[in-house]
Amino acid sequence: MRLTWRPLARRIAALSLPFLLLLGLIVLVVHLIMRPSQQRRVIERDTALLAALQSAVAERPALERELQQVRAQQAMSPTLLPGASTALAAAAVQSEVKRIVDSQGGEIKSAQNGPSVIANEFEKIEIRYTLSASLTAAIEMIYQIETHTPYLFVDGVELRTAEGGAGDAHPAVEPKLTIRWNVYGYRWMGTR
Question: Same domain, yes or no, for 115 and 42?
Answer without folding.
Answer: no
